Amino acid sequence: MATGEIYKGLVERKQQGKSAFAVLVDPDKVAPADMEHLASLCNGAGVDYLLMGGSLIVEHQLEASVKRFKENSDIPVLLFPGSPAQVTPYADGLLYLSLISGRNPDLLIGQHVVSAPAVRASGLEVISTGYMVIDGGRPTTVSYMSHSAPIPADKPDIALCTAWAGELQGKHIIYMDAGSGAKFPISKEMIRKVSSHIEIPLFIGGGIKTPEKIYENCTAGANVVVVGNAIEEDPLLIQELVQATKEARSSVK
User: Fold this and answer.
1) Closest Cα partner for 223 from 198, 253, 187, 189?
2) Residues 6 or more apart from 151 whose CB is under 8 A from it?
3) What is the reported pTM?
4) Distance CA 183, CA 86 (A)
5) Hey, how many other C-beta atoms are within 10 angstroms of the C-beta on 217?
6) Half-sphere exposure of 50 (CA within 13 A, CB side)
7) Where are the domains positioned within the chain?
8) pLDDT of res. 139
9) How far apart are CA 159 and CA 28, in angstroms?
10) Residues 38-67: tens digit of each pLDDT
């Protein structure tokens, strides 16, 4: 399936060495009724993307949350699914995740076989994603559910070779994630090594809480920095984090 305008924009960011900021929303933690306020904050700050999804969806609020956000914002909504059930045509795109850092065949291809009919019928822009879990200093839901060990935080060469494998397989983007609530975000050394040696866009998430870390990730080569937990705890932080992204963007000559 051909990629669309969202992916073209991501590729342009990669080619220009510039970064974007994305808010990650877990529908189990942010109710549909709260999406109007979140949309207002994102619109005012200049957020580039909203990612929607979680490792587990218990409350079945995904579709209602996407619809409520889209009613109040033109910011592209990308699904970040933890299972084949997390697909709704009301979003703009889908990060079609393959856990390339793990060795669980179900998350490499098994769940994709199950979800393929719904994904094809959704009409969403599908962005094939090489998803890599990096050790963030604490067990993550992804590692538990996937029965896979994360890539060690101090092994950038393993991360690079894994990213290369995803790129060579035809993935559209690489997403390196230290996991929700990580103690230690991914190091700038690992980000720089991977970003400088792949030709496709790089997403970075997990444990990012401060404007300083946003700026560091962007200048190290992240094309999209994703923040979830910190914003759940303090939605007003969005403005500061977006500003740090813009400062990093303006520093690129």
Assistant:
1) 198
2) 101, 132, 133, 134, 135, 158, 159, 162
3) 0.96
4) 27
5) 28
6) 31
7) 5-250
8) 85
9) 30
10) 999 999 999 999 999 987 666 679 999 999
pLDDT, tens digit, 9 for 90 and up, residues 178-207: 988 899 999 999 999 999 999 999 999 999
Cα of 80 vs its chain's centroid, Å: 7
How far is residue 209 from each of residues 64, 201, 217, 228, measured CA to CA in Å? Answer: 27, 22, 12, 9
The tokens of 210 are what?
A: 């401060």
**Single-letter residue type at 84:** P
SS (H, E, C) the chain: CCCCHHHHHHHHHHHHCCCEEEEEECCCCCCHHHHHHHHHHHHHHCCCEEEECCCCCCCCCHHHHHHHHHHHCCCCEEECCCCCCCCCCCCCEEEEEEECCCCCHHHHHHHHHHHHHHHHHHCCEEEEEEEEEECCCCCCHHHHHHCCCCECCCCHHHHHHHHHHHHHCCCCEEEEECCCCCCCCCCHHHHHHHHCCCCCCEEEECCCCCHHHHHHHHHHCCCEEEECHHHHHCCCHHHHHHHHHHHHHHCCC
CA distance 139 to 146: 12
What phi and psi values does residue 169 have, to the nearest 5 degrees?
Answer: -80, -10
144 by Cβ neighbours in 10 Å (0-12 / 13-18 / 19+) ranks as: exposed
Superfamily (CATH H level) for 5-250? FMN-linked oxidoreductases (3.20.20.390)
Residue appearing with tokens 């759940």: 232
